[in-house]
Amino acid sequence: MSIIRTITAAALALAAGTAGAETLRFSSFEPPVAHITKNILTPWAEEVSAASNGTIDIQMFAGGTLGRSPAQQLKLVEDGVADFAWIIPGYSPGRFTQGTVAELPFMVPNATVGSEAMWKMVEDGYFTGDYDKFKLIGVLVSAPNFIVSRIPIVEPEDMKGINFRGPGPVMLKAVEALGAVPVGGITGPTIADAIRRGLVEGTMTQWAAVETFRIGEVTDYYMTAPLGATPMLVLMNKAKYDSLPDEAKAAIDKFSGAAFSERFGKSFDAHHDAAGDREAATGATIVKPDAALTQRWKDATQVAVDDWIATTENGQAIYDAFRERLDAAAAAH
């Protein structure tokens, strides 16, 4: 009987702790089965909740249930509609501008190295301003974006005169440098429809997005020179974080920052590579540039690098610091 009473008491205590937990809302514009939401964000939320000693319960609101557009996610956090959100800062031009260094062509080799370097930039004080307004859970980058199109594009000259989508302001500058007509404002979930309707001939993106947003259904050609990564953020409303008990803050802190960068980068790269293998199996035309072709794309996009350095406050210092941290992270892996 004493054993039964002990078990019952423990169960009641656990239930009371769960019932007393403050529910926090985590917004994702992705479907709940998409890789980042299912395999990175949701397990993170569960682990933090479990580590909080019953003080918080982080609930995922996927599929745009708090706001459907990727461009809405930042405002959801600012307004307190969501406590956390996964955010693509390129959809909010003029915000988080220092982190757009990751969009520069031929910088980021993969999400693991890039995300580690991005967090080091935060730790070392290079990313400020907008970054200081939030509790930073993760400051991240995708694997490199490349050319995905419904027409063959191999040489830089093949871009001339066509409408082409870029996922952020720096990559749009690179599109312009290549002689194409840069088209912004097309979010990930609407890329395939824009290509299908002929609004653009293609986009800069990476394998995970090709699969998640079904872009491969309307494209047949891929040229995989690394033309810049997509910066990403996982942010928390700072006032909400500050209002939480110490146990909740400690749980969030434990799984954020460098730990989140490592979690995100490794998972993203594994999924990215597997998605590329699946797309290759469909018979799509995939061009992997040799050294000479790579150099031609570097030369053609260098103006975007020069422009970013010249027009960004402390641009040269940020560029050099990011390059150093990328090299250090690459050496460590």
UniProtKB/TrEMBL annotation:
**Chief location of this protein?**
periplasm
- Record flagged with keyword Kinase: no
What is the protein name stated in its UniProt record? TRAP transporter substrate-binding protein
Q: Where in the cell is it found?
A: Periplasm
Q: Which InterPro entries match?
A: DctP_fam (IPR018389), TRAP_DctP_sf (IPR038404)
Question: From which residue to which does any coiled coil extend?
Answer: none
Source domain of life: Bacteria
List the signal peptide residues.
Answer: 1-21
Give the matching Pfam families: DctP
Entry keyword set: Periplasm, Signal
**UniProt KW Transcription regulation keyword:** no
